[in-house]
Automatic annotation (TrEMBL):
It comes from Streptomyces dangxiongensis. Residues 149-181 are annotated as: Disordered. The lineage of its organism: Bacteria, Bacillati, Actinomycetota, Actinomycetes, Kitasatosporales. One of its GO terms (molecular function) is holo-[acyl-carrier-protein] synthase activity. Keywords: Transferase. This is 4'-phosphopantetheinyl transferase superfamily protein. The keyword Transferase applies. Pfam families: ACPS.
Length: 225
């Protein structure tokens, strides 16, 4: 598989950069495609042969790369015809989660898995926004858990998730998404993923209070400079 060149993860002094890429994958083949894209992106970033890099996992389940890519911070997500990967350098732990937009019993799911406040917020939205709203909250919960290294285990499933301050989320202008300062942040965008739309959440945990920029792109077409 040929992957586009990954963007550089360096920037102006004091700025941390990470790469977040996503795309469509054949149903049933999402895991393989996402792992291959993670390896290919790391290889391009490091200018290293992809054959020297493999995906492994820490005891808690967090993915990591081996060989020349062992120092990169990474996260991945796949399922239902889509996948996403995140890569970066430095102390910040990353979490990414992606879900295709599809019809759901959004308010009932939120009431069961997220609590009354998020469910009431979703129920108050126009009906055509509720599926994306539930998926935004769910992917935020997943992404934060991944950034913290335990996913939905160790209380992650019942961890409260705040409703977004701004709604609905939109794709940011251009290919770069600035993050607010702080040691634990999460942001959500709605993006095209092949023939569908997807909700993508990106979380960062344990980074210094310094500017952070995420370079975004569809893994089929984007070649960052």
């Amino acid at each position: 598989m040929t992957a586009p060149a990954a963007p550089h993860t360096t920037g102006p002094p004091g700025t941390t950069r990470m790469t977040v890429m996503w795309g469509e994958a054949a149903r049933g083949d999402e895991r393989r495609v996402t792992h291959a894209q993670l390896i290919a992106s790391a290889a391009r970033m490091l200018r290293s042969p992809a054959g020297r890099i493999q995906v492994a996992h820490e005891p808690g389940g967090r993915p990591r790369l081996t060989g020349p890519a062992r120092g990169l911070r990474v996260s991945l997500s796949h399922g239902d015809g889509v996948g996403a990967v995140a890569l970066g350098r430095g102390p910040a732990a990353l979490g990414v989660d992606i879900e295709p937009v599809r019809p759901l019993p959004a308010t009932a799911l939120a009431r069961r898995w997220l609590g009354d406040t998020p469910a009431d917020w979703i129920a108050a939205l126009p009906r055509h926004e509720r599926d994306e709203a539930f998926l935004a909250l769910w992917t935020r919960k997943e992404a934060v858990g991944k950034a913290r290294g335990h996913g939905l285990r160790r209380g992650g499933l019942t961890r409260p998730v705040a409703v977004p301050a701004d709604w609905p989320p939109t794709r940011p202008p251009g290919r770069r998404l600035p993050f607010p300062s702080g040691s634990d942040t999460v942001t959500t965008v709605v993006i095209p993923a092949g023939r569908t739309r997807a909700v993508l959440s990106i979380a960062v945990s344990g980074r210094p209070a310094a500017p952070l920029v995420a370079d975004l792109g569809d893994w089929r077409t984007v070649a960052f400079r």
